[in-house]
Design a protein that fits this description.
Elements (H helix, E strand, L loop, with lengths): L2 E5 L2 E4 L4 E8 L8 E6 L6 E6 L5 E3 L7 E6 L4 E6 L8 E7 L5 E2 L3 E6 L1
Parallel strand pairs: 2-11
Antiparallel strand pairs: 1-3, 3-8, 4-5, 4-9, 5-6, 7-8, 9-10, 9-11
């Protein structure tokens, strides 16, 4: 079965950086859409960034120029490099496979303090 395991979340001050990882097993991510989503308390889950198997990327307007989605197909791992973090980036971040998402990870908490 497909498993997606996120890591790399934590507490960081505003302006700092974090890199999230999503290790996949049971499926080869190089053939599929992969995405990062986030859900803040009291809000709906939203798409943060998406990567197609052809390498095309899409970003939410709120993270453009600050976040970068990438993948290491050899490691079957998806990444999200987050720079210039803001308190409003605080959320649980999830990786997902396919679009619309069919498989989800368990999430990793990112907290940005002001």
């Amino acid at each position: 079965q497909v498993q997606l395991v996120e890591s790399g979340g934590g507490l960081v001050q505003a302006g700092g950086s974090l890199r999230l990882s999503c290790a996949a097993s049971g499926s080869i991510i190089s053939f599929t859409f992969m995405g990062w989503y986030r859900q803040a308390p009291g809000k709906q889950r939203e798409l943060v960034a998406q990567s197609s198997s052809a390498g095309a990327t899409i970003y939410a307007d709120s993270v453009k120029g600050r976040f970068t989605i990438s993948r290491d197909n050899g490691k079957n791992t998806l990444y999200l490099q987050m720079n210039s973090l803001k308190p409003e980036d605080t959320a649980v971040y999830y990786c997902a496979q396919y679009f619309p998402p069919r498989y989800w990870g368990q999430g990793t908490q990112v907290t940005v303090s002001s």
